[in-house]
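for the recovery benchmark. C-alpha cells below, seq after
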C-alpha cells in the first residue's frame, strides 16, 4: 500500500487523466485510449479512494457522470437524472450484486437483461403525443438540446399512437455497422478524418449544427427506459417497455422477467454468443431489477443506480494464420510492419490486417510468417496481435529489411528509438505521407486534396514538395484522370485559401518530429514568426513551457537543414503567412500563473475560459494545490472550491476574470 503522500499524488494524477479522457470520449467524440484502459484507470482510482477516504472529493470522476453539456447547444436540465451504470467485469461481481439486492429486499425479486448498446444516451420528451424535445445526457443533470437533429432519426416517432399528456423516455442513439462502414469508406475517399468506431460516429453525427448532416448519417435508436409521465403508470420495467412499444417507440430487445441469478447469467452469455450477428455494436449486457418499487428500495449513489449493473464483455479473441508482413513508410521515414492475416471475423467485422508496430514488438512476441496468431480488437476497434498461438514447423525468425522498400536507401535505428527509419529526404513514400499530413484538416486544411487525389498528383510527378502544390495549374490538374474543369477550379481555390491559415497551422503541417498541434500553437504564440523560430537555439526553445530537450533539438535540426531553408524561402515567395497574427501574440501578463476552473460559468464553457487564460500566458490545471494561483468558480463549484478555501487560494468569478483582463 502506498504512503499517504504517494496515494494523494496518484489520486490527483488519476482524476486529471480521467477528466481528460472523459472530455475526449463524451464531449469531443475522439477517445485516445481503449475502454479497457479507461476502466482500469477508473478501478484504480476507486480502490485508492476507498483505501484513503480522507482524499475523497465530490467532483471526482468516480462520483460524476462522464459528459458535460456542449456550449454550442442550448442546455437542458433533466428533472429525472440520467444516471450512469456501475460496471462489472466478472461473475463474482454479478453475484455480489445479487447479494446486495437480497440484503435490501425481502422475498423474491425479478431481473431483466438487455444488450448494452454502444452509442449516445438521449432523453425524448412527448407532449400530448407529439415529440417536443430531445437532449443528450451531458453530466446527468444538464444535457444539450439536440431536438432538430433527433427529428432526422427515422425510428423516432414524431407522434405517438396515443395523445399521452406528457412522457419522457431514455434511449440510446447508435449507428448501425453497415452505415458506419459506408461512412468510413466515404471519409477515407474524401481525405477526411475517419471516425474510430460507430459509437464516436453516432455521437459526432448527433452533435452537428447542421441537421442535414445528421440526417445523412442514418442513425437509429433503442428506447431502454421509462423516465416519467402524466397519464401513464407502470409497476415494472418490462411492462413499461411493452407499453412504450404500443405507443410506437422502438424498444430495446429485453428478456421476460427472470427469477434466478443463474438465468440472468445464461442470458448474458446468450447475448455474448450472438454479439457478432447483431447489426449494431454492444459492449456488454445490462441487468436491472424489474419491479419499480424494488428499485426505489435500492436507491442510487451520486452516480449510479444501485438496482442495475452493466456486465462488460472482455474483448473477443480469435486465432488466424499470418500470411505475410508488409512494410510501409510513414511521412517521417519510419518503417511500420503490418501483419497480413487469413481473414477472420472478430467483434462483428472481418479482420485481415493488424499493425505490428516495430521490430522489437515482433521479436518480443517471436512472430514468424506462417504462425497461428491470437488476435483481438483493442477497444473492439483496432486489430492487435496478443500472442503467437503456434509456430509453423520450420518457420524462421522475422528480420526487418535493411533498406527502405520505397526507395532502396539504407535504414537506420537511432539511439533510444524502437523504429527503423529511412533517412532519404527524397523518398517517394515519405513525400506522399508528408503531403497527406500537410493538407489534412488540422494542418493546412486544403479541401479536396484527400489521400486519393494526392496519390494521383504524386504518381503523375506534378509535385516534389509541399511548396509545389501552390504552383499547380488548371491544365496540370485536368490532366489527371477524373479531374474536370470545375474540380480543378475548386482545388486551386482551396489551395489558395490555405495560404492564410497562419503560422501555427503551417508549423504543424511541416510535420516536424515530436511537434504536434498544441506545440505548434505554442511556438507560434511565443516566437511570433518562422524566422525567429528558425533562428532560436536549443536553450531558447527549452525555456518555453512544455518543451524539453528532445523537442527543442528536433526543431533546431529541422530548421538547420538546407532543404528546410529552401522550402521556407519558397513559401515566403508564394505568399504564405509566416508570422503569427496579433491575436496569437497577446501579452503574457499571466505568464507563470496557474488557474483551476470549476462549476458552471455563465455564458461561457470551461474550454472557452481555458483558451482565454492561455491567450494571456496563463495555464490551466485540473486540481487545486498550493501552486494554484486562482480558482475560477462558477455555480455548483463543489469540492475544488472547498479545497481552494482550505489552502487560501484566491477564488474569482468569471466577471472578475474579465475585469482582470480589462485592467
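predicted aa per position
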Amino acid at each position: 500500500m502506498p504512503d499517504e503522500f504517494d496515494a494523494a499524488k496518484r489520486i490527483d494524477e488519476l482524476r486529471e487523466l480521467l477528466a481528460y479522457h472523459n472530455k475526449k470520449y463524451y464531449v469531443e467524440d475522439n477517445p485516445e485510449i481503449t475502454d479497457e484502459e479507461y476502466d482500469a484507470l477508473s478501478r484504480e482510482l476507486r480502490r485508492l479512494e476507498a483505501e484513503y477516504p480522507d482524499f475523497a472529493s465530490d467532483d471526482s470522476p468516480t462520483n460524476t457522470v462522464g459528459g458535460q453539456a456542449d456550449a454550442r447547444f442550448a442546455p437542458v436540465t433533466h428533472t429525472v437524472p440520467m444516471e450512469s451504470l456501475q460496471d462489472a467485469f466478472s461473475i463474482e461481481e454479478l453475484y455480489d450484486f445479487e447479494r446486495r439486492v437480497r440484503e435490501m429486499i425481502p422475498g423474491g425479486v425479478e431481473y431483466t437483461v438487455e444488450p448494452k448498446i454502444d452509442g449516445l444516451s438521449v432523453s425524448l420528451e412527448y407532449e400530448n403525443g407529439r415529440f417536443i424535445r430531445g437532449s443528450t445526457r451531458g453530466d446527468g443533470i444538464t444535457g444539450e438540446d439536440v431536438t432538430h437533429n433527433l427529428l432526422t432519426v427515422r425510428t423516432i416517432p414524431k407522434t405517438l399512437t396515443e395523445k399521452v399528456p406528457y412522457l419522457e423516455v431514455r434511449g440510446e442513439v447508435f449507428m448501425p455497422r453497415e452505415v458506419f462502414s459506408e461512412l468510413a469508406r466515404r471519409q477515407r475517399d474524401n481525405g477526411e478524418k475517419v471516425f474510430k468506431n460507430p459509437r464516436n460516429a453516432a455521437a459526432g453525427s448527433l452533435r452537428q449544427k447542421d441537421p442535414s448532416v445528421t440526417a445523412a448519417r442514418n442513425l437509429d435508436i433503442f428506447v431502454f427506459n421509462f423516465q416519467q409521465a402524466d397519464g401513464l403508470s407502470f409497476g415494472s420495467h418490462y411492462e413499461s417497455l411493452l407499453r412504450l412499444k404500443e405507443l410506437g417507440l422502438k424498444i430495446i430487445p429485453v428478456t421476460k422477467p427472470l427469477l434466478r441469478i443463474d438465468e440472468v447469467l445464461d442470458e448474458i452469455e446468450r447475448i455474448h454468443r450472438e454479439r457478432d450477428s447483431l447489426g449494431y455494436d454492444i459492449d456488454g449486457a445490462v441487468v436491472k431489477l424489474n419491479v419499480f418499487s424494488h428499485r426505489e428500495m435500492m436507491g442510487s449513489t451520486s452516480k449510479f443506480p444501485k438496482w442495475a449493473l452493466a456486465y462488460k464483455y472482455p474483448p473477443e479473441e480469435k486465432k488466424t494464420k499470418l500470411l505475410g508482413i508488409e512494410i510501409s513508410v510513414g511521412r517521417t521515414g519510419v518503417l511500420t510492419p503490418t501483419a497480413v492475416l487469413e481473414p477472420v471475423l472478430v467483434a462483428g467485422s472481418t479482420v485481415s490486417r493488424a499493425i505490428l508496430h516495430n521490430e522489437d514488438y515482433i521479436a518480443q512476441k517471436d512472430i514468424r510468417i506462417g504462425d497461428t496468431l491470437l488476435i483481438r480488437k483493442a477497444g473492439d476497434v483496432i486489430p492487435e496481435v496478443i500472442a503467437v498461438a503456434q509456430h509453423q514447423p520450420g518457420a524462421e525468425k522475422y528480420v526487418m529489411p535493411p533498406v527502405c522498400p520505397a526507395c532502396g536507401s539504407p535504414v537506420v535505428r537511432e539511439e533510444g528509438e524502437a523504429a527503423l527509419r529511412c533517412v532519404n529526404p527524397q523518398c517517394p513514400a515519405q513525400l506522399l505521407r508528408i503531403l497527406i499530413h500537410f493538407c489534412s484538416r488540422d494542418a493546412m486544411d486544403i479541401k479536396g486534396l484527400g489521400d486519393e487525389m494526392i496519390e494521383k498528383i504524386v504518381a503523375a510527378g506534378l509535385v516534389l514538395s509541399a511548396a509545389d502544390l501552390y504552383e499547380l495549374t488548371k491544365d496540370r490538374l485536368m490532366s489527371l484522370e477524373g479531374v474536370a474543369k470545375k474540380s480543378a477550379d475548386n482545388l486551386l481555390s482551396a489551395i489558395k485559401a490555405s495560404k492564410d491559415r497562419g503560422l501555427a497551422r503551417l508549423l504543424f503541417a511541416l510535420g516536424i518530429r515530436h511537434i504536434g498541434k498544441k506545440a505548434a500553437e505554442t511556438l507560434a504564440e511565443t516566437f511570433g514568426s518562422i524566422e525567429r523560430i528558425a533562428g532560436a537555439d536549443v536553450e531558447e526553445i527549452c525555456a518555453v513551457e512544455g518543451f524539453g530537450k528532445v523537442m527543442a533539438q528536433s526543431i533546431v535540426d529541422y530548421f538547420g537543414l538546407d532543404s528546410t531553408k529552401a522550402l521556407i524561402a519558397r513559401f515566403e515567395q508564394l505568399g504564405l503567412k509566416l508570422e503569427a497574427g496579433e491575436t496569437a501574440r497577446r501579452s503574457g501578463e499571466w505568464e507563470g500563473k496557474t488557474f483551476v476552473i470549476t462549476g458552471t460559468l455563465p455564458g461561457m464553457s470551461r474550454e472557452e475560459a481555458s483558451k482565454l487564460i492561455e491567450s494571456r500566458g496563463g495555464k490551466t490545471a485540473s486540481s487545486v494545490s498550493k501552486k494554484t494561483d486562482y480558482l475560477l468558480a462558477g455555480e455548483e463549484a463543489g469540492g475544488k472550491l472547498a479545497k481552494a478555501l482550505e489552502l487560501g487560494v484566491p477564488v474569482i468569478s468569471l466577471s472578475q476574470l474579465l475585469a482582470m483582463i480589462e485592467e
